[in-house]
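Exercise 7.
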Amino acid sequence: MPPESETHKKRRAVQVVRQLATLYPGEQCLLTHSDPFTLLIAVLLSAQTTDAAVNRISPTLFARWPDASSLAAASRQDVEQVIRTIGLYRSKARNCIACAQRLLSDFGGQVPNTMDELISLPGVGRKTANLVLNGAFGKVCGIAVDTHVFRIAGRLGLTNGKTPSQVEADLMRVYPRKYWSSINHMWVLFGREFCQARRPRCPQCPVGDLCPSYMA
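Solution. The predicted structure, written as tokens, is:
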């Protein structure tokens, strides 16, 4: 089978998004938050954990520490106790407190709204920064690549990237900018319902006709 042309790949990639948009319309953050700070902390907590698990502990967490100044002064043990039901809770408690302290010392307690400033915060990478910029400030600077997006992009043959940054660069190359903000939202839902890591539901897949992994 001859290699796919870049033009055909771009056309196929757009068709994937358009077909999934009929199943998952709109763009909404699945993490409970009320402002940029609570969104930032919620995204930090969501790594390798479900959004639902984070949402279960968020009310207690943000009732006790609703802003950077209060969380910066919290003890790690107290934060650990509140978030202990989610994965990696010890390192996440440490990162959240350190992040709040950096917000206080370098940004007046406010969440910055640029990529470079956000990724300077403890525990914040491009995925977190992209989600915060989009969800809190309406800024689209890239594509948030989590485990779902990483897996789906590879299965769809849109990337051979071995790291999230490589996958993001490939997706940004094949997708027009107007689609960047919706990809993470749709693909997370699609990954949970159909394109699961261990047992993908390929026969029922709504984009199976566009997926080289399934067609093979």
